[in-house]
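Give me the fold.
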Amino acid sequence: MTERIQTAIVTGGAAGIGWDIALRLLADGYRVIAADLVPGRTAEQPDVLWRELDVTDHAAVSRVFDGIAEEFGGLDVLVNNAGIQRHRAIEDLTWTEWSAVVNVNLNGVFACLQAAGRHMLPAGGGRIVNISSVSARGSAGRAPYSTTKAAVIGLTSTAGAEWAARGVRVNAVAPGYVDTGVFRQGIEAGTLSLDTILERIPAKRLAQASEVAAAVSFLVSDQASYMNGQTLYVDGGFMVDYGIPLAKKPE
């Protein structure tokens, strides 16, 4: 009897960090579905399947996840990667901007996690990785993004605690600043300063999307079989550095 190929869904998986995650899981031997609003880069790699999905549409999430599980005989991995940002000072932030970020980054993560859990729990196993951010600690000008990414860490811990005994592991990856097209657009638009950011990162460089993908690959593997409810920071030391350099010894 042929062993079933394990199936992984990556939301927002057709571009950016999600695309690197999709490619890494494909290389790891998974059947990978990029669940995204548009096909994006899936046209470049036909082995990464695309399913149209708006994570803010709760009914659509259930329908798409149910369809994938039925088509491929189950659902083994979910990477909750879809996310958006809105840059604005709190006093100027509109309710529409706030709500848009909350709906994608938190409500969408919850909807997908719940839909995946409803397939994984009866099957007695599964792995979920939620993508958070170092911005969860707070980030000026990004109130909705920081708030939702902090909430994702809380949701991850709670789901990990609830589902561990039933064979479903839920963890998070929190990237620091990653060298993506969106990041470069921020530099060009003047909303981000590369020199200021690099000065703040102990490693003195940006992360590559492939490094975030490697952390996801680890968390869904058997090597991480005793990890549950945890957040793994991929940030070049950003979170552990207080910002005060070591004083030089006197000559």
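The mean pLDDT is 94.
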